[in-house]
Amino acid sequence: MIDQFFHLLGYPFVQNAIAAGAVIAIVSGLVSRFVVARNMAFAVHALAELGFTGSAGAILVGASPLAGLLAGTIVTALFIGALGVRVRERDAVVGVVMAFGLGLGVLFLTLYQAYGTQAYAILFGTITGVSHGDVVLLVVLGLVTLVALATVYRPLTFATVDPEVAEARGVPVRRLGIVFLLILAVAVAEAVQVVGVLLILTLLIAPGASAERLTARPGRAALASVLVALLSVLGGIALALLTNLPASVFVTSLSFACYLGARFVAGPRFVGGGRTGARTAAGDTLRA
Predict the structure, then answer these.
(1) What domains does the chain contain, in order, with CATH numbers?
(2) Are 252 and 202 in contact (CB under 8 A)?
(3) How far apart are CA 9 and CA 57, in angstroms?
(4) Is the pLDDT of residue 201 over 80?
């Protein structure tokens, strides 16, 4: 089986899948920690669903599904950010925007006369089908996302852990929320290539949730989240190649196993101390 895997590594489509998977895992892992800390699981789901709407619309007009996916997530992020990014209003806004977007998606698929193979592939992920051009695009998007996240990392950490105090100290909490939504939109568009729209939560929730159980230190949590994402994505691709089953099946299973393992390792000692530790760590980060 190991010999078979190394033999497969010689094929360009396998090399493309591994390269794309590594980029997606790094971006997803770093973004996931903030998604969990900011309670934005519902927003991730909405961005993915409306990204699918964008893909369906792009296919209808003969454009690239990936470009449509990216456009759909970015437009959705701007709508959510403009209408409300605070916790008390965000879920309602996300629900309204998502319902409207899904209605448009149904319309686009209905108007498309041919069989929407490309659109349906977006639902379940096609990591082993990415081209060299797709890899280059994913690398560019990944670099842009990482640079943007690094630029706002310190104030975003403060605004995430204690938004009221951050706002009182002059941190632009609302603008940071919109910026993070745009970063999240690009991360969602990338992660869909691995697990598809229907399973997007596994890459943008599980790594961050696992890391949160292991440590309250922001830097260590980010590293742990990236490692979980890399293990899940690259391990899932390897198992998919060896078994000829969809990679999303193994990616979701590995990420779930990592989360269960993190809960078992952390145990009851972590319960109740995560938020306090995170606030202390965030304060240390800002004073550094």
Answers:
(1) 2-287 (1.10.3470.10)
(2) yes
(3) 35
(4) no
Q: Which one-letter amino acid corresponds to residue 74? A: I
Locate 168 and state its tokens: 């009182």
Alpha-carbon distances, residue 114 vs 56, 58, 108, 118, 126 (angstroms): 12, 14, 12, 11, 20
Give the integer Cα–Cα distance in Å for 91 and 88: 7
Concatenating the DSSP letter of every residue in 2-68 gives HHHHHHHTTSHHHHHHHHHHHHHHHHHHHHHHHHHHTT-HHHHHHHHHHHHHHHHHHHHTT--HHHH
CB of 277 within 8 A of CB of 216? yes
Concatenated DSSP letters of 205-272: THHHHHHHHH---HHHHHHHHHHHHHHHHHHHHHHHHHHTS-HHHHHHHHHHHHHHHHHHHHGGGTTT
DSSP classification of residue 183: H
Write the pLDDT tens digit of every residue in 74-110: 988 888 777 765 556 667 777 777 788 778 877 887 7
251-279: per-residue pLDDT in tens? 889 999 999 998 887 655 454 445 545 55
Which residues 6+ apart lie within 8 Å of 255 measured at CB? 202, 203, 206, 207, 210, 228, 229, 232
The answer to whether 233 touches 193, Cβ cutoff 8 Å, is no
Burial level of 41, CB count in 10 A (0-12/13-18/19+)?
Answer: middle
